[in-house]
Amino acid sequence: MTMTSPVISKSTSSSVVSQTSTDLYGHETWEDFAPRIHQLCRQLWPSESGDFNVEKLRGGSFNRIFGVQTPASDRLILRVPRYEFAQQEREMAILHYVRQHTSIPMAHIVFFDLTHINPLNEPHEHKLSVAEQWGQLLLSQLTVRNDFAGILDTITSDNENPHVYGFCPFEVDPEPEKEDHRLLSKQSILDIFVLQFERWNAADKRAYPNDPHLDHLDRLIIVAKEMDAAGLFGAGVFFSLCHLDLAPRNVMANISNTSNTLQITGVLDWDSTVFAPHFMNCEPPSWIWAWSTEDDASGGSDDFEDIHANDEPATEEDRALKRKFEDTVGVDLLKFFHMPHYRLARELFKLAMSGMRGRDPFDKADRLIQEWDRLQGKPQVTHEEEESDNERYHTDSADDEPYYSGQSG
To answer: Strands of 63-69's sheet, edge to edge?
Structure first.
């Protein structure tokens, strides 16, 4: 944040600019942000009596711009970086250098603040509150349990039972001619992995009866059995409600101007909600303590869970956020967040739900198997001898969708 004088230009406030800035950059609305500017002004000029006049000006790609007029009629420009990676020190150094070495009229820096400890930044207390409330959201899902995994089905209604919820197995395409009765009865964690991969195997054989390249599903069943033998699916693992897309983009929150508190007010996008092994809720929400503008908040850019999600944060403030989240979920759950074995178990379950259609699942399966073998201390096996991707896949010219090859090469 920098405040400079004099004001070089002035523009009128625009609702279009406000809407664009709020939507494009995820900022607070002008109505919510303006009181914080007034609070900042009172902090910087405590002896001034009278009103500060604050005006929203047209901002740029990297800074929000505001005009401030003090009670003494001093007119200044307030620049607030839009992004965490702003290099304000460099920008100020340039101003000082040009002012010192040229006669070009330059803005004079009156105040600056390179920290987060000012009224314009999201208070650390807000971030701590998010870390705590996020942990509580995850814990709430774990209280809703079921005897088996599957999808919540449509609601039926009658006079005696106005809200009757049903369950159905995960969808497999094409649907089996006859479903296994074990899909809707009490299961072990290993059961659902094996049942799902067997269902996909049977469906793929019906759809592509001459395709010789179905060994991945058999290999993934072996991985599931090895995980079970290693104790990953043992005591303390159960089926619970899982949102599966619990990310910042799907959460609404409200910041109270009167109490200066933040409260999560709603969770959106429940379309992908299932009953699944409870460790599916335990992907570390590293965006809380290690926000990245490059990757999606729910994982890496390749949709494979971030292997660095549990790395120690760089700053004490971020370490405090991580501790707050971990204290909220409790020590008994931390192994499901921390152990790389459970990260791979989550990836394995995603494959069990969605099957092996297209190229991406095969790449992810190979990566998963190789990393699991490394964790188990097995000799590394490469698949260079296997068929090339061109042999494994063809592209249907009708819909351009990858499908299994029926040729042996």
So the answer is: 53-56, 63-69, 75-81, 2-5, 108-112
